[in-house]
Amino acid sequence: MNNETREKLQENTPRCTIFTKELIRRKILVDPSEFEIELFDTIFKELLMYYEYRVILICCSYTISCIKRNDLKDEENKPIESLYAYFKVALLSNIKRYTRPVDIDWLE
């Protein structure tokens, strides 16, 4: 990618966390407002206080993939009304599931 193209991309990309940029790049957030960007940035900044960057990155990527696979529809095949609320709940659920300790009974 040449420098001119990179500069144009940077001009068109809003200032936000890498996670929010990923939501925009993967077309979960289409033409987001400053308010939407701030909402999603706040989620990720709070999560970074409690979880490792790697954990959030893995769970965020998985959550985005699931939402994209379902064509932005919920479990009942209805369009997601509040993407922010749906994404936040799904992401937190996936993080809790991912960080849960594994108990292997046969080792005892």
Tell me what the structure shows.
The longest helix has 17 residues, at 34-50. 16% of the residues are buried. This protein is an all-alpha fold and 108 residues long. It has 5 helices and no strands. It has helices spanning 3-12, 18-25, 34-50, 53-69, 83-99. It is globular and about 60 Å long. It has one domain (16-99).
How would you briefly describe this protein structure?
With 108 residues, this protein is mostly helical.
State the domain count: 1
Radius of gyration: 16 Å
Number of helical runs? 5
Q: Mean of residue pLDDT?
A: 85
What are the SSEs and their pairings?
Blueprint lengths: L2 H10 L5 H8 L8 H17 L2 H17 L13 H17 L9
Helix pairs in contact: 4-5
Question: What features would you highlight for this structure?
Answer:
108 residues; mainly alpha; globular
